[in-house]
Amino acid sequence: MRPPDPRTVRSRAAALTSARELLVEQGLAGLTHGAVAARSGISRATLYRLWPEPPDLIQATLTWHIVLAQAPPSGDLRADLITALSATRAMLHEPAAEQGMRVIIERAGVDPRFAEVKESLHHSGTRAVREILTGAVARAELPAELDIDLALDQLHGPLFFRRLVAHRSFDLDYVHDVVEDFLHRHRTEPTRPQGST
Amino acid sequence: MRPPDPRTVRSRAAALTSARELLVEQGLAGLTHGAVAARSGISRATLYRLWPEPPDLIQATLTWHIVLAQAPPSGDLRADLITALSATRAMLHEPAAEQGMRVIIERAGVDPRFAEVKESLHHSGTRAVREILTGAVARAELPAELDIDLALDQLHGPLFFRRLVAHRSFDLDYVHDVVEDFLHRHRTEPTRPQGST
User: Fold this and answer.
1) Nearest residue on chain A to B99, judged by CA atoms?
2) Which of B99, B106, B165 is opposite residue A122, by nearest beta carbon?
3) Which end of chain B is more exposed for a tag (fewer CB within 10 A), N or C?
4) Which residue on chain A is closest to B155 by alpha carbon?
5) Domains and CATH numbers, chain B
6) What is the pLDDT of residues A115-139, one digit of tens each?
7) For helices B77-92 and B54-69, what crossing angle results, to 10°?
8) Burial class of residue A17 in the structure, from the number of CB atoms within 10 Å of its CB (0-12 exposed, 13-18 middle, 19+ buried)
């Protein structure tokens, strides 16, 4: 693969910045190729080539955040969960990502193209926590019978509910509390090394 | 207050039915007074009188569900939580209510009128569980230091996340699991009546 043309990279960055501003100010209704072109100075033709439809633009915005949020697990269950959910917390408090998620939640209910984008983002957005949980089960720090899908909901659900439904902001203490309650409920008793058993 | 004119009740029901259908089929974009008038046969003048703006229509749809969901707590913590969250589950699986919530989550981010509707629905929608938790704290079945707002997120959050973000349906077993994990983590040890202490 050739390195991308620097002009394309600049156009792409300028267009995404304008798209994110429009999304925050006006929601999906304001996110048209015409409005992005007018604000960014990038031609409509270029915009249609980069992101044929509005879902592509929203996906581009959120993917950027999710990629930032990925860090390889260290093997310390508590620390890894806090790192992953702190990244989710940051995304939920970044205006364009937050509004992008709101738009996707609405549109995925009625528009198959958005439902696909939603599916892909949900998959990549929960992969980190899924890997952390699977690893902890393999190390017997979480029980083998743990319902991983339910655990994902119990870890992500409170954050999404508080930000997108209750519409409140929250700090890292909140993330700690959610992780602590989860571990208190599910973590197996640590097996201490003993002499003979 | 005079009893409502039966014609008004019929118009209102017909219009709400059409509004709910449009919401499910097309999301907010399809929910215009013109489209509701065309489908229901109710005049636009009547529609504007009943619900001046689209947020009013969506609020009317969801309020109906939330009112249905309210039952006075019996005092049995587990049973009351399961009853309340089963109603939330039913609402999340009723197409018009589900899409109404999706629309509100999106619009509340950018439109103050929808933010008000969201606030009012969030308040009435979480009141039942709040009362159940407050009662259980008063009876010392839950600890006095319980963070009630966090508990609300831990009980509602997984349901909303699974339905609106993961986009999966779930049954009553799921509600039982969420309640069971919550009680396992937070419920105080039952004080058994004893002879002398």
Assistant:
1) A109
2) B165
3) N
4) A158
5) 1-52 (1.10.10.60), 53-186 (1.10.357.10)
6) 888 888 888 889 989 999 999 999 9
7) 150
8) middle
